[in-house]
Amino acid sequence: MIPELGQFSLVLALLLALAQGVLPLVGAWRGNGALMAVARPAAAGQAIFVFAAMAILIHAFLAFDFSVAYVADNSNLALPWYYRVTAVWGAHEGSMLLWVFILNVWSLALAAFSRHLPPAFLSRVLAVLGLIGVGFLAFILFTSNPFLRELPRPADGGDLNPVLQDPGMTFHPPVLYMGYVGFSVAFAFSIAALLGGELEQAWVRWARPWTNVAWAFLTLGIVAGSWWAYAELGWGGWWFWDPVENASFMPWLVGVALIHAQAVTEKRGSLPAWTVLLSLFAFSLSLLGTFLVRSGVLTSVHAFASDPRRGLYILGFLVVVIGGSLLLYAIRAPKVATGKPFDALSRETGIMVANLLFTTAAAMVLLGTLFPLIGDAFNLGRVSVGPPYFGFLFVLLMAPAVLLLPYGPYLRWGRAEGRQLTVVSLRAGLAAVVCAIAAAWFADGRVRAVAGVAGAVWVAAGTLAYALKRWREMPSGRRYPAEMAGMLVAHLGVAIFLIGVMLSESLSVERDVRMAPGQTEAVGGYQFRFDGVRETDGPNWTADEGEVSVLRDGAFVTTMRPQKRTYSRGQVQSESAIDPGLFRDVYVALGEPMDARHPEGAWAVRLYHKPFVRWIWLGGLFMMAGGFLAAAERRFRTHKQARDLPATSATESVA
Amino acid sequence: MNPTRKRRLAIVISVVFAASVAVSLTVFALQRNMSYLFTPSQVQEGQATPYATFRLGGMVKAGSIQRAGDSLKVSFIVVDDGGAMPVEYTGILPDLFRDNQSVIATGRMADGRFIASEVLAKHDENYMPKELKDAMAKAHDKRHIDDTPSKDAPR
């Protein structure tokens, strides 16, 4: 009975979403206040029913209700309660419900915190979110209902995919979706602005905090996913250029461009059309991401759902959303250049160049990701593009961005002074060269490590020098407004990330070795002694657990216990053992027994020493913190009228 | 030319230049990194000959996995409907690697054997990479068509 209530809630939510999507639009068009007033209560109603459906699905998992097919497929009696909760989004149907759930979190937040917006504008924004909700709720109800019954009720269920039974998986999908779906808010603002013809700066200022928060969540989601892949997939990589990783990375890249373009449009009124276009792209790529992950059109380790009907629906939905919004853009986008004029040497130009680099990078990732489809369409055979393609082009595109980054804060709006730029180039350049020489000493002249240190110091020195300049020149209290602080923190994150990537990529030592009990191998200055394998078990698995003692110069460091788990349905899953550290990770994973009949004998073992690998995620966390900080800017919350022009002076302005 | 036109010309020229650089680099990177997938029978027909490295997809033949006694070297045979290809690999195989599993190996041919640098196994029991499924279906169709003339041949 209870699961039917869940389905019933979804039907009601769909009806309310329809009301939220259509009536306020009509109201805003005809100037009918009563119809516009429908938007907020309808959004609240839709949210209540979607939340109820989510709660019911979670309850079904917690109560072992195997009469629900989705529960029976993805959980069993032995699965611990926390993985039963995360199993809700462990497969396709639940993920879609999570998508809608998060869409409603965003709509609800928007309805609650945007009372100061002009009613016509707010009702259009909520209506667009309502229409997106209609699309996804109909998708759930017609193609992927998580509440379908399976009769007769099986005594026990299947299992959650073992790679998903990991702490990283508990929060990676919700956070990633917070980011994906969050771009729908920027999208809705853009559509509302296009519909209303209010293409002036005011709407961008309202959209900025939402975009920043969405981007920060997306950053955290990607960081969590990368960390999960590192810890769980068992070969110690943190990024694979896998189609699904790319799917989350494309909106992120466009998001970077978008938050900077929004700053230009808000402060100077320039590039409004470009900003609108980027918001459309960011959300379209988020939808495409959903499509790529869930339709199984591309070969990927994540594509656990393959159902052409669903793919077709999302494809149709994509065509309607992207095609419709681009059509609207073509009709309504501003034709004349607006905003204050700017010189060739100005912050506007700098941001434009960076924008081009980031959107080109996103296009390059898109091309590489969709290449198998293109190859198929042109009958080139079964082709896919390997990671070196992405690595080569991405580095090429991001190197100029890194080079330009320290100048960002120094560039003035409108017209920059060359003298200051020379000073910062000299200072940051000197710091970078000195550190690069020092790094060359330590890294035995490995080019990538040296380049990484030079790039990171270049960025960090430039950013810190600007922070210092603000400290000296501004009165206390006005030194670091939230937006400025966010920019500085995020840019420092880039430096930390660079260190992490370049040092871990160039200095890591990875060895796959055959080890008999008692044997010792040296990797990266550590000695690893294999002490054999014993059997152990957990709630729903049994495992061969290896014991590896790690020593450094004969002194004991730690004992590591990598596992080779066998789950109840027979799936095998390696659990790597990681000894984390700020400056190095030691990573041990079990391969297979050299003789399957003698697990007490020799094993294949992966021994990795990964310097600075944590800095990759630390840098990501800094970027995320920067996004949240910038969103907290007080200026975004002041309730000025739409006509007010921003009163920022050129000196006070920030990126 | 007046200054505005001059500026526009400069912008247009730099955009065209940047675009052509981007396109040529992308084409270069694509050409270098395109990786084709073939099944053992397609390889035996010589379809993979033009490519230095490619991906080999098929099923691991039951009982064909052999380990070296003293190193991580392992050899196995990948089969599809009409062909078989011995594969050599040094390293740790993925968790899901076992008899009768579909695998995709990246590598090159040497002395009639496929020397793999990377081996991927399918993600879970019910899932066969779509790419591989299509390639095997295609190889199968081809064989079917090839069969027909050979029946007609001894006229």
Give me a quick take on this structure:
Chain A is an alpha+beta fold and 655 residues long.
Question: How does this model look, in words?
Answer:
The complex is a heterodimer of chains A (655) and B (155). With 655 residues, chain A is an alpha+beta fold. Chain A has four domains: 1-165, no CATH class; 167-404, no CATH class; 411-508 and 615-620, no CATH class; 513-612, no CATH class. Chain A is built from 20 helices and eleven strands. Chain A has helices at residues 2-30, 33-36, 39-62, 69-74, 81-86, 92-113, 119-143, 167-196, 201-232, 243-268, 272-295, 308-332, 347-377, 387-404, 407-410, 418-442, 447-473, 482-507, 614-631, 634-637; strands spanning 383-385, 509-515, 520-523, 526-538, 541-552, 555-560, 563-567, 572-575, 577-579, 584-593, 603-611. In chain A, strand 4 (526-538) and strand 5 (541-552) form a beta hairpin. In chain A, helix 8 (167-196) packs antiparallel against helix 9 (201-232) and helix 17 (447-473) runs antiparallel to helix 18. The radius of gyration of chain A is 26 Å and the shape is globular. Mean pLDDT of chain A is 87; it is low at 300-305 and 641-655. By secondary structure, chain B is of the alpha+beta class. Chain B has two domains: 1-34; 35-152, Nucleic acid-binding proteins (OB fold (Dihydrolipoamide Acetyltransferase, E2P), Beta Barrel), CATH 2.40.50.140. Chain B is built from three helices and seven strands. Chain B has helices spanning 3-33, 40-44, 130-152; strands at 34-38, 53-60, 66-67, 73-79, 84-90, 102-110, 113-121. A five-stranded mixed beta barrel of chain B has the order 2-4-5-7-6. In chain B, a hairpin with a 4-residue loop joins strand 4 (73-79) and strand 5. Mean pLDDT of chain B is 78; it is low at 143-155. Chain A binds chain B through residues 161, 234, 296-299, 301, 303-304, 306, 356, 360, 364, 367-368, 371-372, 375, 381-389, 392-393, 396, 512-514, 564, 571-574, 591-592, 594-595, 604, 606, and chain B through 18, 22, 25-26, 29-30, 32-38, 55, 67, 70-72, 91-93, 95-96, 106, 123-125, 127, 129-132, 134-135, 138.
